[in-house]
Amino acid sequence: MVTTFLSRKAMVEYLAEIAWETDVWVAEDATHLIHFNGEYLLQPYKLDRDLGTE
Fold first, then answer.
1. Neighbouring residues of 33: CB distance < 8 A, sequence distance ≥ 6
2. Where residue 3 falls among pLDDT bands split at 50, 70, 90?
């Protein structure tokens, strides 16, 4: 999940509500993605069909 904000100032108002293991993108700093700690950064998830099991 990615949460988006127009500015860091707007993000600060919601910091306590942002779910752990999600990412935040701020429009005023569009080349940076903030990852709220967790095992994985944004990446494709493997589905059972991708692993050869059904």
1. 2, 23, 24, 25, 41, 42
2. very high
